[in-house]
Amino acid sequence: MVATYPWLEPRGVSHQLVEYYVRSGWFTKLATGAFTRIGDQPTWAGSVHVLQTHLNLPVHIGGRTAIELRGYSHYIRTEQTIHLYGTPRLKLPTWFKQLDSFKVIYTTTKLFDHSEAGISSLNVNDFNLACSSLERAALEMLSHVPQLYGYAEAAYLMEGMNTLRPKVVQALLEQCRSVKAKRLFLHLATECNHRWVNQLDMSKINLGSGIRQLAGGHRFDKKYLIYVPDRVLNEGAS
């Protein structure tokens, strides 16, 4: 774990004492105000814990990483890329961006009316981290199609989402600000014949007006007014 001044000072470790530890070879200075013990390699979970708990930054694990952590890793690519989400204009500290033991894709967005909707605590390697639910993570991931993920990968992912909670889905769809993500979410869930779709109250979900189109899409979904690429379910992720 990375130690920062806000965490060290209440524990009696002053700036002067930290500098002494650095000169003595006990601490490594990562950037201004951030340190590790000599030989320590900060993990991504420990580093995110510092952001959320020591610095109280409103960031959370979301998208594909949250889906993987919540047990769906066999539906997606597994790699050491961490997907973090924060509020608009929120910048990550320099030391976090300089860590090279893992890759971070950081998105600042106002995807939902209430920024904490669908986020709960998840224990990862003994750290309790703020993490998106499966329902929220799916919408976060779909908001990045096709920029980060292909349609086939998104469809393959949604095949496994047969146990989503309709009340949670309903609340998030009512709060989600991305018309494209909502239409794509409902389109894929319907194609996958997920039963929870029938429990949604569509009259309360704003799907906008006009037609949406994904890059390369020429197959038209008349129900959700969106053009999508051809894709046969069960063919696997791209």
The fraction of residues assigned to DSSP E strands is: 15-25%
Largest sheet: 3 strands, antiparallel
Low-confidence stretches: 233-238
Q: Shape from CA axes?
A: elongated
Order of helices and strands: EHHEEHEHEHEEEHHHHEEE
In which range does the helix fraction lie?
Answer: 25-40%
Using the CA coordinates, give the radius of gyration.
Answer: 21 Å
Q: Let me know the average pLDDT.
A: 90
Number of domain units: 1
Number of strands: 11
Our measurement of the CA-to-CA distance between the termini, rounded to an integer number of angstroms, reads 35 Å
Structural class: alpha+beta
- Largest sheet: spatial strand order: 1-3-2
Individual helix count: 9
Relevant terms:
about 240 residues, alpha+beta, 3-stranded mixed beta sheet, about 35% helix, elongated
Please explain how this structure is put together.
- This protein is α+β, with helices and mostly antiparallel strands and 238 residues long.
- The protein is 34% helix and 19% strand.
- The strands form 4 sheets. A 3-stranded antiparallel β-sheet has the order 1-3-2.
- A hairpin with a 4-residue loop joins strand 10 and strand 11.
- Helix 4 runs antiparallel to helix 6 and helix 6 (134-142) packs across helix 9 (179-191).
- Residues 233-238 have low confidence and may be disordered.
